[in-house]
Amino acid sequence: MKKIEAIIRPEKLNDVKVVLSDIGVKGMTVSNVLGFGNQKGYTQIYRGQEIVTKLLPKIKLEVVVSTEKAEEVIAAIVETSKTGAFGDGKIFVYDVVDAIRIRTGEHSDDAL
């Protein structure tokens, strides 16, 4: 099993959710996060004063899928959330040793 963690633009969340649902991803965790990278933040004027915002709002999307399905999920996230500009995000992939569904006690792929 693989855990896929994607940091994406907030406006891309609904598109990514629809695509993942269409390819059979049954569950995901979504978190609002702040971060910066090459985008470096932005400057705005508020009441005549310059304010520098370095941490930008992003969405962290986490899914655990079977190893066989991981590449398909990664490709779907990249294709759907890509704009070609700085700030599109990153994807991290981790190995998952086991998953257990608390309600039934099922293990591994059965728990997904």
Descriptive account of the structure:
There is one protein chain. The protein is of the alpha+beta class. The chain has a single domain, classed as Alpha-Beta Plaits (2-Layer Sandwich), CATH 3.30.70.120. It is built from two helices and six strands, in the order βαββββαβ. The strands form two sheets. A four-stranded antiparallel β-sheet has the order 2-5-1-6, covered by helices on one side. A two-stranded antiparallel sheet has the order 3-4. A hairpin with a 2-residue loop joins β3 and β4 (49-53). α1 (13-22) packs antiparallel against α2.
Question: Which structural traits does this protein have?
Answer:
112 residues; 2 helices; alpha+beta; Alpha-Beta Plaits; N-reg_PII; 4-stranded antiparallel β-sheet; N-reg_PII/ATP_PRibTrfase_C
